[in-house]
Specification:
globular, 3 strands, homodimer, 87 residues, Arc Repressor Mutant, subunit A, DNA-binding, alpha+beta
Chain lengths: 87, 87
DNA sequence: AGATATTTGTTCGTATGTATC
DNA sequence: GGATACATACGAACAAATATC
């Protein structure tokens, strides 16, 4: 149960976990509109406290990677439609 | 968002913030049994760290100005009923 | 309708480490 | 060495929204 991450000491845990989630979104492991792990999930998988997990999600939310609905969970944000990528 | 206090250097920040809160209680800005700003509020309003905000509240609590309930917040203490003010 | 479980939001309590004065 | 101040991190408790039974 849970990766046993040996956290580096030169960077906060919440940043390291956020980076892992970020990469999973980029890699497509977590797809748009699908749910990402709950704070409880992160606690178990990474062996961190809930407030630390909360901080991870807040960071990802503030950078627009996910959106959150209380009582439901967090979800991968849809692709950016404001950018002129598809003409 | 937040007063921009230019903290004096001759006195600890936590004491200066405590004094501000103290004065607001005296002035009636914060009334008995009503909630005073959370530690998070103080962080934002005064631009201080949470541990510093915590120190502020602890000082006010120890002098009886407020009481605290974990998970709820801190509240202005009721008027002192032990003193023989109203006969 | 009611109870329960899950999930996020928010609050305080505490400890540790680092840096500065 | 002690006091101040910051960030990090864990724990605990209360609250609200959602979903399910």
């Amino acid at each position: 149960m849970g990766i046993v991450i040996d956290f580096r000491e030169d960077q906060p845990r919440w940043q390291q976990v956020a980076q892992v989630i970020r990469e999973r979104i980029t890699a497509g492991t977590y797809r748009p509109a699908s749910r990402v792990p709950s704070e409880n999930d992160l606690m178990q998988e990474f062996g961190i406290a809930r407030m630390t997990a909360h901080k991870v999600m807040r960071a990802l939310r503030e950078e627009g990677a996910i959106y959150t609905v209380r009582g439901m969970g967090s979800f991968v944000s849809p692709p950016d439609t404001t950018a002129p990528s598809e003409a």
